[in-house]
């Protein structure tokens, strides 16, 4: 498939070959894998950090605040490079690229999710908690049975947006040779000498993955909003 535009001749034959598409497909699988893992671990980190942030222990709450602000205000690429290169030196451990990538994305997502969880939990009317204590419910039972189910309504759409961001931010892992989508595209562009075609295909692939997610999140948000009005 060849097309001419100005002084550049577009040639899609090598980029859209079965071998090239298989390479991009493997990269997409790695992208989705690290994104899902980062979302899972990020949720765990976010819930823990949010709980500490809302605690009455000022020192612990302050530590959680510093963690949240550090990871929200520094570039994800810098965090990734620091975790991959500096952490092994400081603690004398070995981190493979995929592990380092998942850790970096998880810690970054955890900071944003912590604020999402904190906002969702604090949005639940205080009267709901007071009523739970009057009924004799423990703090744990009150949280999981009363507060959390209501907080999920506000947290779900924002959590979905974090996942979309993770899919896009996973492209940063190409700098430490994680064989995700962008890394495979870089290798393919080098081997085919068709960078414009390859990166166009890369952009389209990210769009195909992210657009349905953003549309689904938008519909979910509208549905939750309507149900809350009822």
How does this model look, in words?
This protein has about 230 residues and is mainly alpha-helical. It has one domain: Orthogonal Bundle (MetI-like fold), CATH 1.10.3720.10. It has eight helices and two strands, in the order ββαααααααα. A two-stranded antiparallel sheet has the order 1-2. A hairpin with a 2-residue loop joins β1 (about 1-5) and β2. One of its GO terms (molecular function) is transmembrane transporter activity. Pfam families: BPD_transp_1. One of its GO terms (biological process) is amino acid transport. It is a multi-pass membrane protein.
In short:
The protein has 230 residues and is mostly helical. The chain has 8 helices and 2 strands, in the order ββαααααααα. 79% of the residues lie in helices and 3% in strands.
Average pLDDT confidence is 92
Write down the secondary-structure element order: EEHHHHHHHH
Question: Sheet bearing the most strands, described?
Answer: 2 strands, antiparallel
Query: Going by CATH, what is the homologous superfamily?
Result: MetI-like
Coarse shape: globular
Over all CA atoms, what is the radius of gyration? 22 Å
Number of strands: 2
CATH architecture: Orthogonal Bundle
| CATH class label | Mainly Alpha
The overall number of domains is 1
- Helicity range: over 70%
